[in-house]
């Protein structure tokens, strides 16, 4: 057998069909919200895209170009889109609504069968820092997921600005705040509690940090969060969440949302509201997103942006068994009746049917060939009519 | 209908202790589980399904979401680094991860060898100490390695220290304290949040009152 590199997969017809149906439905929703699709190169410079991307260095596929520059296979689409959006092309057009549906590449460190190449479909809303933009992104994601028939899903929303502010207020230094954030990033609540208890803080401050872990749930979380912060800066973040909640109410999409202020999807990429989306039957998040204000600075712009990306492979898994592909029919012909066969095929194709034209001389095993099709028409020999089975 | 909450557990003593904790937390579990060879045990009154796995595999089941929850030793969590929530220290199955070897021996100063069931954890520990070592992965009977000359040191879990003693080995350094942890799949933690929060609260209550009593 000829092997493929680790984590690389073939997409066979049935899966291909499902993926393209999902891609088309979601793409149509995105377009109807005024987002424009773009494509960017698969290869980018490591120095720009590789370093700017949210993906860890050890997950990047790197290679050298003939001049010796280090290239990466793009690990996500957000950084390339930021590169494009920061260029002159779009200078005066902010806010900018862009969409993409592309394969991205991430090397896997364990269990080599996990996909190292997978398709992401997503959007970026660039140059609009209002909560309305965050709300639009989340509402668009919900609409798209419903459009493809996903019912049982949930979105958890956090705010990285809030937790940074709270930790800074209590702990005093960025360094100490970062240590604590790392525990959340690693999802290690036990370690978080042990660390808080080991700090030399007042009992009240310790309790505030421990209570922080309970900021998960519905609107009640907003008031609990306001009680935890002392200064206006932290409160601003909470008020953004409040506004987001009201925005989602106006969209009529509230029921899919929960707050989880302990959510830290990345150590230093997101800067404001961030979210993950989960579906029943899939053990991993099917998508995520959030506000990333720092990225554009790496491309020389001071611009705020937000966006989301859905993983198509996990979405397929969430939607359950693959639908059967509607079978095509086959016309088996011999040379004498070739012209007739072509005419019939043309008519049927015009009706929207899938028709295979097959010269009988090209087939070794007639039975094996005919078994693939729902309907066969034989146009063989000089005279006689059509025989359909 | 309420779907099962699936809990992955290691076979043996940890299972017994964890089940006892769940009973104390008010869950209605049968007094004993017959037929210990079964891999899946369903408790319909509580809508629980236990899957009995190798200790090292528990976080794997939970990460992939085929188990919503799991009970795993901290040793396994350090070794496997799976993407799961570590929610509670259950404070059962106390032991610790230690470096051991033959008494009064120094590590080979060129490339000392360390045999262990925990290659990641061992490598990380010696890296932090600034020592270059060759880590040799074994699957059991680790004590054999220094005796027979395969390695200078071993990294293994120690509970009473009896196994080390019986094999003429001594402990050199203590790496980390180990207890069993309640771990949760990130998706289940959201999609089944009510049931899981309730379970965590009830278990937390039991653990706290136990630690006050003891």
UniProtKB/TrEMBL annotation, chain A:
<dbReference type="InterPro" id="IPR041715">
    <property type="entry name" value="HisRS-like_core"/>
</dbReference>
<keyword id="KW-0963">Cytoplasm</keyword>
<keyword id="KW-0368">Histidine biosynthesis</keyword>
<dbReference type="InterPro" id="IPR045864">
    <property type="entry name" value="aa-tRNA-synth_II/BPL/LPL"/>
</dbReference>
<comment type="function">
    <text>Required for the first step of histidine biosynthesis. May allow the feedback regulation of ATP phosphoribosyltransferase activity by histidine.</text>
</comment>
<dbReference type="Pfam" id="PF13393">
    <property type="entry name" value="tRNA-synt_His"/>
</dbReference>
<dbReference type="InterPro" id="IPR004516">
    <property type="entry name" value="HisRS/HisZ"/>
</dbReference>
<feature type="binding site">
    <location>
        <position position="120"/>
    </location>
    <ligand>
        <name>L-histidine</name>
    </ligand>
</feature>
<dbReference type="Pfam" id="PF21996">
    <property type="entry name" value="HisZ-like"/>
</dbReference>
<feature type="domain" description="Aminoacyl-transfer RNA synthetases class-II family profile">
    <location>
        <begin position="7"/>
        <end position="327"/>
    </location>
</feature>
<keyword id="KW-0028">Amino-acid biosynthesis</keyword>
<dbReference type="GO" id="GO:0000105">
    <property type="term" value="P:L-histidine biosynthetic process"/>
</dbReference>
<feature type="binding site">
    <location>
        <position position="124"/>
    </location>
    <ligand>
        <name>L-histidine</name>
    </ligand>
</feature>
<dbReference type="GO" id="GO:0140096">
    <property type="term" value="F:catalytic activity, acting on a protein"/>
</dbReference>
<feature type="binding site">
    <location>
        <position position="106"/>
    </location>
    <ligand>
        <name>L-histidine</name>
    </ligand>
</feature>
<dbReference type="InterPro" id="IPR053846">
    <property type="entry name" value="HisZ-C"/>
</dbReference>
<dbReference type="GO" id="GO:0005737">
    <property type="term" value="C:cytoplasm"/>
</dbReference>
<comment type="similarity">
    <text>Belongs to the class-II aminoacyl-tRNA synthetase family. HisZ subfamily.</text>
</comment>
<dbReference type="GO" id="GO:0004821">
    <property type="term" value="F:histidine-tRNA ligase activity"/>
</dbReference>
<feature type="binding site">
    <location>
        <begin position="269"/>
        <end position="270"/>
    </location>
    <ligand>
        <name>L-histidine</name>
    </ligand>
</feature>
<keyword id="KW-0328">Glycosyltransferase</keyword>
<protein>
    <recommendedName>
        <fullName>ATP phosphoribosyltransferase regulatory subunit</fullName>
    </recommendedName>
</protein>
From TrEMBL, chain B:
<keyword id="KW-0368">Histidine biosynthesis</keyword>
<comment type="similarity">
    <text>Belongs to the ATP phosphoribosyltransferase family. Short subfamily.</text>
</comment>
<dbReference type="InterPro" id="IPR018198">
    <property type="entry name" value="ATP_PRibTrfase_CS"/>
</dbReference>
<protein>
    <recommendedName>
        <fullName>ATP phosphoribosyltransferase</fullName>
        <ecNumber>2.4.2.17</ecNumber>
    </recommendedName>
</protein>
<comment type="subunit">
    <text>Heteromultimer composed of HisG and HisZ subunits.</text>
</comment>
<dbReference type="GO" id="GO:0005737">
    <property type="term" value="C:cytoplasm"/>
</dbReference>
<dbReference type="InterPro" id="IPR024893">
    <property type="entry name" value="ATP_PRibTrfase_HisG_short"/>
</dbReference>
<keyword id="KW-0808">Transferase</keyword>
<dbReference type="InterPro" id="IPR001348">
    <property type="entry name" value="ATP_PRibTrfase_HisG"/>
</dbReference>
<comment type="pathway">
    <text>Amino-acid biosynthesis; L-histidine biosynthesis; L-histidine from 5-phospho-alpha-D-ribose 1-diphosphate: step 1/9.</text>
</comment>
<dbReference type="GO" id="GO:0003879">
    <property type="term" value="F:ATP phosphoribosyltransferase activity"/>
</dbReference>
<dbReference type="InterPro" id="IPR013820">
    <property type="entry name" value="ATP_PRibTrfase_cat"/>
</dbReference>
<keyword id="KW-0067">ATP-binding</keyword>
<keyword id="KW-0328">Glycosyltransferase</keyword>
<keyword id="KW-0963">Cytoplasm</keyword>
<dbReference type="GO" id="GO:0000105">
    <property type="term" value="P:L-histidine biosynthetic process"/>
</dbReference>
<comment type="function">
    <text>Catalyzes the condensation of ATP and 5-phosphoribose 1-diphosphate to form N'-(5'-phosphoribosyl)-ATP (PR-ATP). Has a crucial role in the pathway because the rate of histidine biosynthesis seems to be controlled primarily by regulation of HisG enzymatic activity.</text>
</comment>
<dbReference type="Pfam" id="PF01634">
    <property type="entry name" value="HisG"/>
</dbReference>
<feature type="domain" description="ATP phosphoribosyltransferase catalytic">
    <location>
        <begin position="54"/>
        <end position="204"/>
    </location>
</feature>
<dbReference type="GO" id="GO:0005524">
    <property type="term" value="F:ATP binding"/>
</dbReference>
<keyword id="KW-0547">Nucleotide-binding</keyword>
<keyword id="KW-0028">Amino-acid biosynthesis</keyword>
């Amino acid at each position: 057998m000829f092997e493929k590199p680790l984590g690389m997969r073939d997409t066979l017809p049935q899966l291909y069909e499902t993926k393209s149906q999902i891609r088309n439905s979601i793409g149509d929703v995105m377009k109807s919200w005024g987002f424009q699709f773009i494509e960017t190169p698969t290869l980018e410079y490591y120095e720009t895209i590789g370093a700017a991307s949210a993906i860890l260095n050890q997950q990047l596929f790197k290679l050298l170009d003939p001049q010796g520059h280090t290239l990466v296979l793009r690990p996500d689409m957000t950084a390339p889109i930021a590169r494009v959006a920061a260029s002159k092309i779009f200078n005066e057009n902010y806010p900018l609504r862009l969409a993409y549906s592309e394969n991205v590449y991430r090397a896997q460190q364990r269990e080599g069968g996990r996909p190292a190449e997978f398709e992401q479909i997503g959007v970026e809303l660039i140059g609009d820092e209002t909560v309305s933009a965050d709300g639009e992104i989340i509402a668009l994601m919900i609409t798209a997921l419903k459009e493809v028939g996903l019912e049982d899903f949930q979105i958890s929303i956090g705010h990285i600005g809030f937790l940074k502010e709270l930790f800074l207020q209590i702990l005093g230094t960025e360094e100490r705040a970062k240590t604590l954030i790392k525990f959340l990033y690693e999802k290690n609540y036990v370690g978080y509690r042990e660390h808080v208890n080991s700090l030399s803080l007042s009992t009240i401050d310790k309790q505030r940090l421990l209570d922080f872990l309970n900021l998960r749930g519905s609107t009640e979380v907003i008031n609990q969060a306001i009680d935890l912060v002392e200064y206006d800066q932290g409160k601003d973040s909470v008020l953004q969440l409040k506004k987001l909640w009201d925005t989602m109410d106006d969209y009529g999409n509230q029921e899919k949302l929960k707050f989880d202020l302990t959510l830290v999807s990345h150590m230093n990429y997101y800067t404001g509201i961030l979210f993950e989306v989960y579906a029943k039957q899939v053990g991993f998040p099917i998508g995520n997103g959030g506000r990333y204000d720092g990225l554009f600075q790496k491309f020389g712009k001071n611009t705020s942006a937000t966006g989301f990306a859905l993983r198509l492979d996990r979405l397929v898994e969430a939607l359950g068994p693959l639908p059967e592909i509607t079978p095509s029919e086959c016309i088996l012909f011999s040379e004498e009746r070739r012209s007739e066969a072509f005419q019939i095929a043309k008519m049927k194709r015009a009706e929207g049917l899938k028709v295979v034209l097959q010269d009988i001389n090209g087939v070794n095993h007639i039975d094996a060939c005919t078994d693939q099709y729902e309907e066969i028409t034989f146009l063989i020999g000089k005279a006689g009519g059509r025989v359909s089975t | 209908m309420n779907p099962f909450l699936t809990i992955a557990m290691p076979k043996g003593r940890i299972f017994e202790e964890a089940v006892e904790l769940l009973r104390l937390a008010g869950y209605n579990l049968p007094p004993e589980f017959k037929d210990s060879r079964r891999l899946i045990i369903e408790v319909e009154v509580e809508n629980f399904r236990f899957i009995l796995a190798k200790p090292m595999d528990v976080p794997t089941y939970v990460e992939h979401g085929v188990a919503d929850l799991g009970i795993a030793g901290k040793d396994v969590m350090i070794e496997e680094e799976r993407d799961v929530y570590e929610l509670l220290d259950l404070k059962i199955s106390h032991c610790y991860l230690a470096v051991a070897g033959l008494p009064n021996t120094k590590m080979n100063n060129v490339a000392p060898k360390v045999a262990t069931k925990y290659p990641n954890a061992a490598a990380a520990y010696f890296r932090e100490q600034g020592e270059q070592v060759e880590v040799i992965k074994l699957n059991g009977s680790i004590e054999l390695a220094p005796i027979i000359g395969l390695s200078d040191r071993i990294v293994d879990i120690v509970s009473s220290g009896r196994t080390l003693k019986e094999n003429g080995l001594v402990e050199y350094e203590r790496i980390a304290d180990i207890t069993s942890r309640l771990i949760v799949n990130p998706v289940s933690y959201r999609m089944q949040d009510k049931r899981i929060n309730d379970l965590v609260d009830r278990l937390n209550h039991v653990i706290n009152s136990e630690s006050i009593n003891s």
